[in-house]
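Students often ask why inverse folding is considered easier than folding. One informal answer: many sequences map to the same fold, so there is more than one right answer. In these notes we will look at a single instance of the problem. The structure comes first.
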């Protein structure tokens, strides 16, 4: 059985969450994706909530990064 280091698992989870955010941005995001064709810059934050969350996940890890991202989303809405 192969055991992965904790750091490796952390990196894998960060990449998975970042990938999910990118897919959201390409598809559903009113500022980045297909919907941006029908909306005009609706985000009041720069960077957008999804960009900020992706950055925080890369810097702080999945749990802390998602908490910080959700806090920004909560402040926006």
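Output (designed amino acids):
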């Amino acid at each position: 059985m192969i055991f992965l280091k904790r750091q490796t698992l952390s990196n894998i989870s960060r990449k998975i969450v970042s990938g999910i955010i990118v897919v959201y941005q390409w598809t559903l995001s009113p500022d980045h994706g297909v919907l941006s064709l029908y909306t005009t810059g609706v985000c009041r934050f720069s960077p957008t909530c999804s960009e900020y969350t992706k950055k925080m996940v890369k810097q702080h890890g999945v749990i802390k990064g998602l908490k910080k991202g959700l806090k920004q989303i909560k402040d926006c809405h």
